[in-house]
Amino acid sequence: MRRILTVIIVMFAFGVFAQTPKDKQAILNVLEKQRTAWNKGDIEGFMQGYINTDSLLFVGKSGPTYGWQKTLDNYKKSYPGKAGMGFLTFGIKKVDFLNKDVAFVLGSWHLKRENDEPQGYFTLLFKKINGEWKVIVDHSS
């Protein structure tokens, strides 16, 4: 019984210390900056929320893509110009901290464009690097 209680206390302590309101808000701020940049037609600004390395992983309907530049190129091809980008909204469902420097985000996205309204879901892995939260994995459908 004592061992079980110790395990529960340790698990609770890691959960409490892993997630802070400040870090959660910082992640939500990254997503809001991305949304704002997107709605201005600024894909490069949107991309500032991602880690700028070849290890960035984006998984979409065409499968996995590695690298910041390749992800940017794909966005530009798939969403040409402001009209192609439309007006983006997010619905954040959860932000869970896996440890003090890694977080999992589940959300929905919705684009309103002149002729259609595509929508779907995303899962993101954020990592705190040099004090900044960046997306290191994006799986969007």
Short descriptors:
141 residues, alpha+beta, 40% helix, globular, signal, Nuclear transport factor 2 family protein
Q: How would you characterize this protein structure?
A:
Mean pLDDT is 90; it is low at 4-13. The chain contains five helices and six strands. Strands 2-1-6-5-4-3 form a six-stranded mixed sheet. By secondary structure, the chain is of the alpha+beta class.
Please render the helix and strand layout as text.
Elements: H1 2-18, H2 21-39, H3 43-46, E1 57-60, E2 63-66, H4 68-78, H5 81-85, E3 87-99, E4 102-112, E5 119-129, E6 132-140
Parallel strand pairs: 1-6
Antiparallel strand pairs: 1-2, 3-4, 4-5, 5-6
Can you give me a brief rundown of this structure?
By secondary structure, the chain is α+β, with helices and mostly antiparallel strands. 40% of the residues lie in helices and 37% in strands.
Strand ordering within the main sheet: 2-1-6-5-4-3
User: What composes the largest sheet?
Assistant: 6 strands, mixed
Portion in helices? 25-40%
Query: What is the CATH topology assignment?
Result: Nuclear Transport Factor 2, Chain: A
Number of helices: 5
Gross CATH architecture? Roll
Task: Note the gap between the termini.
Answer: 45 Å
Rg, please?
A: 17 Å
Residue-averaged pLDDT: 90
CATH class: Alpha Beta
Number of strands: 6
Number of domains: 1
Strand share of the residues?
A: 35-45%
Contiguous runs where pLDDT drops below 50 for at least 5 residues: 4-13
Structural class: alpha+beta
The shape is globular
Provide the succession of SSEs.
HHHEEHHEEEE
Pfam family, one: DUF4440
Protein name: Nuclear transport factor 2 family protein
InterPro entries: DUF4440, NTF2-like_dom_sf
Keywords: Signal
